[in-house]
Design goal:
Helix 2 runs parallel beside helix 3 and helix 14 runs parallel beside helix 16. This protein is α/β, with parallel strands linked by helices and 483 residues long. It has a five-stranded parallel beta sheet, with helices on both faces. Strands 7-8-11-6-12 form a five-stranded parallel beta sheet. The longest helix has 20 residues. Bound molecules: adenosine-5'-triphosphate and magnesium ion (MG). Adenosine-5'-triphosphate binds next to helix 7 and helix 15.
């Protein structure tokens, strides 16, 4: 019988070395463990070991920096990277530098053993070209280290070397578009364009022409030939947002394009080869839509090749603190005054349900940064924000009871502008101010119609779709039947 495989373990934490040595030993492997990256490198150079398990941060070197060297020297040697510093960037770097698998700490021993088994069993593939993530991109697009998010980072990282179709599912405001962008930005089509199209925002009769383009004179109003999103996204990624809202005829046409790999524009005859990677997203339950006859099952299976489910924010409460601080920091960079959150405030944020998810949290933080006079935000300030949606806004020192709207707005804008005079670059003022006005306007109108959006749209004189989009963008909680 051949001698059992040898696993090289590098981790500066002695207890992890002990646990791994015992567990691997019990499973019949030989183990050599070290706390230094230099020792690991020496073993690798000397041709020792059949598998490496390494930590990232070690006193003398970084496991991620060692990876390309190991891969160059011994391309067939599998490396499993584990890290407590589990961000999207660690996962992406580990994968792109050729790690066989990336395990965020703490991990399950059973899981580790099954990864080890797979690593030793799988035939050595031809080494992938080592792709580096874009430089200067140390700023993470996705924040949060909950178990759920780490699973998502691992999936994104694995997908960086493929063009597989991805379906992102999650409630409104959970970060679906951000995930779609990360898939593009770290994927192999990142040099190409990222083109998004939102099925819920385009009138149904225009969807096919938006997707596939049209010829001059194809329909009334088509004065010129126009490129569709499929053509614009060539060599890049096409993001089909709110796919659950796609009308049936367009679904049929999309399915045909995906099956045949080519499309024709509306009114055109010449087929054009599709060269896009598709990422789709929806907040709807598509399986239910299929049962209700609203979504084609065959299209679903075409799109649902790799499903990614983004959990609602209330299911990853441990991320709320870092997210909140991140958004306050973003607001400060946008020119608003710096604010801090005390522990009570974080607890209050964590106890809330967040129907509008991360977007609602982001809007709340921006609003607090703009309007809270205190530097430290406390639990009381947070609770006041969550009190009774739909109730008239309490008069505050910003909006005195006798003050007219114009005066209040003027005061608000002066505050924003004085922040910019204090040396803070001010950005997005226009959107910020409009949001401050639109939010109560829409929230209170909705409250007065008991959540009836059709009536509210009529009262406001807005198109229903416009109102729906604003409710979403402003993260206004939708409560039906309250009064
Ligand atoms: N993990 C995260 N880290 C940092 N910012 C996030 C995260 N998730 C979401 N956001 C921010 O929250 C906002 C909403 O995210 P996004 O637009 O991706 O949500 P969505 O799921 O597409 O929502 P919808 O279904 O309403 O379209 C964005 O401003 C985004 O930058
Ligand atoms: Mg979205």
């Amino acid at each position: 019988m051949a001698s059992p495989p040898t696993v090289l373990v590098a981790d500066d934490d002695r207890s992890i070395r002990t646990v791994l040595t015992q567990a691997l030993g019990r499973s019949g492997y030989q183990v050599r463990a070290t706390g230094s990256a230099a020792m690991l490198w020496r073993w690798v150079e000397e041709g020792e070991g059949d598998l490496v398990i390494t930590d990232v941060v070690m006193p003398d070197d970084n496991g991620l920096d060692l990876l390309p060297r190991i891969k160059r020297h011994r391309p067939e040697l599998r490396v499993i990277v584990m890290s407590a510093q589990s961000t999207l960037m660690t996962a992406v770097k580990a994968t792109q530098r050729g790690a066989f698998e990336y395990l965020p700490k703490p991990f399950d021993l059973k899981e580790l053993l099954s990864v080890v088994e797979r690593a030793l069993a799988a035939p050595a593939a031809i080494a992938d070209p080592v792709l580096e993530p874009r430089d200067g991109e140390e700023r993470l697009p996705l924040i949060g280290r909950s178990t759920a998010m780490q699973e998502i980072y691992r999936t994104i990282a694995r997908l960086t070397t493929t063009d597989l179709t991805v379906m992102v599912n999650g409630e409104s405001g959970t970060g679906k578009e951000l995930v779609a962008r990360a898939l593009h930005d770290y994927g192999r089509r990142r040099a190409g364009p990222f083109v998004a199209i939102n099925m819920a925002a385009i009138p149904r009769e225009l969807i096919e022409s938006e997707l596939f383009g049209h010829e001059r004179g194809a329909f009334t109003g088509a004065h010129n030939r126009s490129q569709g999103r499929f053509e614009q996204a060539a060599a890049g990624t096409l993001f089909l947002d709110e796919i659950g809202d796609m009308p049936p005829e367009a679904q049929t046409r999309l399915l045909r394009v995906l099956q045949e790999g080519e499309f024709t524009s509306v009114g055109g005859r010449q087929p054009i080869r599709a060269n896009v990677r598709i990422v789709a997203a929806t907040h709807r339950d598509l399986r239910q839509a299929i049962r209700a006859g609203q979504f084609r099952e065959d299209l679903f299976y075409r799109l649902n090749v790799v499903p990614i489910r983004l959990p609602p924010l209330r299911e990853r409460a441990e991320d709320i603190g870092v997210l909140a601080r991140h958004f306050l920091e973003k607001a400060r960079e946008g020119g608003l005054p710096a604010k801090a959150l005390d522990q009570g405030a974080i607890d209050a944020l964590r106890a809330y349900r967040w129907p509008g998810n991360v977007r609602e949290l982001e809007n709340l933080m921006r609003r607090l940064a703009a309007l809270t006079p205190q530097e430290v935000i406390t639990a009381d300030i947070i609770s006041a924000e969550f009190a009774e949606p739909g109730e008239p806004v309490e008069p505050s020192e910003f909006h005195g009871p006798g003050e007219d709207l114009g005066a209040a707005v003027e005061r608000h804008i002066r505050t924003l502008l004085s922040a910019s005079r204090d040396g803070m670059p001010t950005r997005d003022i226009y959107d910020q101010v409009l949001a401050e006005v639109e939010r109560p306007l829409i929230r209170l109108t909705l409250a007065s119609t008991r959540g009836n959006q059709i009536k509210a749209a009529a009262m406001l004189g807005l198109n229903r779709n416009t109102l729906r989009k604003k409710i979403k963008d402003l993260a206004i909680p939708v409560v039906r039947g309250i009064g």
